[in-house]
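JOB MANIFEST
job_type = single_chain_structure
chain_count = 1
residues = 117
[input]
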Amino acid sequence: MYCSGCGTWIPDGAKFCPECGRPISSAPAGTSHFAENTISDEYRPISMWGYFGYEILFSIPIIGLILLLVFSCGGTQNKNLRNFARSYFCFMIIVTVIVVIILLVYTGNMAVQALSS
């Protein structure tokens, strides 16, 4: 049997889940947490269109950055959305650093050309 809270396999006769400590209900043996389709909101999956929509939302210049910070710092109970926001935030930081480096190299080259002529 599987725990209805975390989905961990529970040996027969156990009174509590060894992973999360939830008391075990008297559900019939062999029932699965995943087969019941009772995934908690904390682990609710995001659809492909959901990821696409959040990516567009996070791409909006000011509002997207604010929402990105809110979602990545715990503004949602959904761990999948929080992890996606955190990964998108890391991606934005990397892109920003690369753009700044390219601009510095370009302006440095322009300054060297101006001094040499």
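[summary]
The mean pLDDT is 84.
Residues 1-38 form one domain.
exit_status = 0
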